[in-house]
Amino acid sequence: MRKKTRFHLWPLDVPITNSRHLFHLSRPAGRLLGALVDCSQRQCRKSLHSVFQVNRLIEDGLLWILAMDEELTPLDCLLPSGTQRICLLILNQPLDKDYLHILWSKALLRACADGAANHLYNITAGDRDSFLPDYISGDFDSITAEVKAFYADKDCRLIETTDQDLTDFTKCLAIMVKEIQRRQLQVDTIVTLGGLGGRLDQTMASVETLYHALSMTQLPLLIIQGTSLAYLLRPGSHRLGVNTGLEGDWCSLIPVGGPCQTITTGLKWNLNNQVLQFGKLVSTSNTYEPVAPGNPRKPVTVTTDQPLLWSMGIQKDS
């Protein structure tokens, strides 16, 4: 994930809440402007939000805003030529062999959450020694005795996590974050394979782990299964690359955790400072802004004041 800096000018006597670009400043705007007006120094630096900072401020009645956009191409990880440095976390659901092979070949760290080891063991029959995870974690109520013994014999770490208040996904992710730090790995993205199929409650548990991840790591956490990808956007501004050729026709923005005031560009049906909320408005079955044949698809930009679930289709060969 990259961060891109943008500078914006805004007159001090105009409400910031009217600005599309400075949307995040709407909540603290009153306190912010009061602090700036009272500031006697020409150089101020105050934290506004995780993605905003005030840099050179009051000069000729204008407010300079330095805004950090988080940039990510979600499906870069599935491109053979993709450049994302990833870690791979496998969940206890059926595996796509094509996805597994390309993600495994790129991953700097590989892990299975409990019964995911069964799926890995089965799908790699005949070449299991080439697919040995760095660790398997969980309460081990799903992994079979045969599979557990096989990976133990291959010196894979088996880490038992007994906390029943957290899912195996969340616990496996916590270990991965610590391992990335311990090994000082240079990682762009954590990719999860599985977690969006099967039972609805398990899918919702996967989404809930995305919320845990916001406080566990600054790295983007993607979930991929079948023809779907899910990614929880932090509050802030995001620029999503959607021109890999792997994108399907649909995308969506779902306010799972609560109301989200949202601005977008690059979609067929954009949001202009509207509130996404269950029972009011949810942006499902959206798609991308049309472009002329032969032209690259424009990036999607999303600005949100609360965590917002981005999901998108993946085009697979039939």
List the helices and strands and how they pair.
Blueprint: E1 2-11, H1 29-38, E2 43-49, E3 52-56, E4 62-72, E5 86-90, H2 97-106, E6 110-113, H3 116-123, E7 135-138, H4 145-153, E8 157-160, H5 168-183, E9 189-193, H6 200-216, E10 221-225, E11 228-233, E12 236-240, E13 247-254, E14 260-265, E15 272-276, E16 283-286, E17 300-304, E18 308-314
Parallel strand pairs: 4-12, 5-6, 5-9, 6-7, 7-8, 9-10
Antiparallel strand pairs: 1-4, 2-3, 3-4, 10-11, 11-18, 12-17, 13-16, 13-18, 14-15, 14-17
Bin the helical content.
10-25%
As a whole number of angstroms, the C-alpha radius of gyration is: 22 Å
Distance between the termini: 30 Å
Averaging pLDDT over every residue, what do you get?
Answer: 83
Sheet of most strands: 10 strands, mixed
DSSP summary, beta strand count? 18
Order of helices and strands: EHEEEEHEHEHEHEHEEEEEEEEE
Strand content: 25-35%
